[in-house]
Amino acid sequence: MATGTVKWYNSTKGYGFIAPDDGSKDVFVHASAVETSDFSSLSEGQKISFELERDARSGKESAGRLTVAP
């Protein structure tokens, strides 16, 4: 599982981005991933663990299975 820091998240728009700790490109996170996690929302600067998931239809990657970073 990858770890990173929430760069920004807008609950009104329903998406945001995570900056991975390994320095790779920012990862998109959708509200549906937040809703199915232990989080009610995400806050800028929050450390989280996540898995990269590929959308079968679009082929784009996003963060899923969000958990509190160890």
From TrEMBL:
Annotated SUPFAM superfamilies: Nucleic acid-binding proteins (SSF50249)
Where, subcellularly, is it found?
A: Cytoplasm
**Any Pfam family:** CSD
| Top-level taxon in the UniProt lineage | Bacteria
Q: Which UniProt keywords apply?
A: Cytoplasm
Q: Where is the CSD domain?
A: 1-68
The molecule here is called: CspA family cold shock protein
Organism, by scientific name, is Brevundimonas faecalis
